[in-house]
Amino acid sequence: MPSSPYLTAMRPAYGTGTLADVMPTALAALGIPTRGVNLREAELDGVQRIAVLLLDGFGYHLLGQAAQASATLGAMHHGEIGTLTPITATVPSSTPISLASLACGLPPGEHGIIGFTVRVPDTGDLVTHIRWEGAPDPETWQPEPTCFEQATADGVACTIVSNGTFRDTGLTRAIYRGADWLPAIAPHEVAEGTLSALARGDRSLVYAYLPDVDTAGHFHGIGSPEWLEAVSEVAEAIDGILTGLPRDAALLVTADHGMVNVTDRLHVDRRPDLTQAVEAVAGDGRMRYLYAVPGAIEEVRQAWAEAVGGRAEVIYKDDAIDRGWFGPKVRETSRERIGDLVVVCRDTFAIVGVEGEPPHVARLIGHHGGLTASEMAVPLWSYRNG
């Protein structure tokens, strides 16, 4: 049994409230017909300007601890300001998948960015969506219209407020098409940039991103002094936006995933038997994709099931799809990108030491990508000025 209720499995809430519904909610408030569920219809009626602030790694079940670091977060957590509800990340619960679902308003099965790292079917090469250097072509790999393209076509001024080094990456080309870019790194810069971008045009949509909580959780662990300091800093960005929020504007705060502190690891680089008959190991530490040599899927499944025991579940690709993990609709091109086998880690277990990954990844404390409530539940907090 899991040691915490937050380590129990949680299904993605497609159709009732996932990250894929956040931007459609914003578009609907701005008068733009869109796909997805409207999560704040009454509250946002008549709003002309919306800022969506994404705090990387800031899971819903972390709010109790985060409240120690900020009076504003404490007020949010206790329902004293704005409206707070839990929604879910999409699957896997990792940054590129979640950001694509948010920016495109679609589950992973439709936008196709369906793993932290996946194998390109045509070439057999691995693409890491965060770094994404070279092939495949981002516009072809993710061909669906983004929410920013839809909003821009309707006359809304769209702006991304984030680190300028991300501006020309493959992931940006795949999911942020249709928006202008305003470089900002520090939380106070992000707050200032958000307010500046909100003032553009008659209607505006701003997406702002802060990675600090996620970074601190990875390297120092949830609840560490470094993590609390990062929480305090990003909370200052929220305070800064609220202080200058225009009368006709609203702020939505959410996250791409939560996190667990890992205490048990399987090092693949120490188990050569696990890579026999395996052409590639992809995904991330909490949800791995295994691409088997043709005809060897069952052999690989048995070897990995024995190695992980009860710490993880090893299932066939079709079973993962049938469980609805990637959404109600999975395009054939998306299906081809998922491993033949999916390894889903339970509790505080992770699979590390995979060829091609930086060595420090195996030493990270905080991980995400799995199906536990700690990873899957994310906040949707909204505040409307006036």
UniProtKB/TrEMBL annotation:
<protein>
    <submittedName>
        <fullName>Alkaline phosphatase family protein</fullName>
    </submittedName>
</protein>
<dbReference type="InterPro" id="IPR002591">
    <property type="entry name" value="Phosphodiest/P_Trfase"/>
</dbReference>
<dbReference type="Pfam" id="PF01663">
    <property type="entry name" value="Phosphodiest"/>
</dbReference>
<dbReference type="InterPro" id="IPR017850">
    <property type="entry name" value="Alkaline_phosphatase_core_sf"/>
</dbReference>
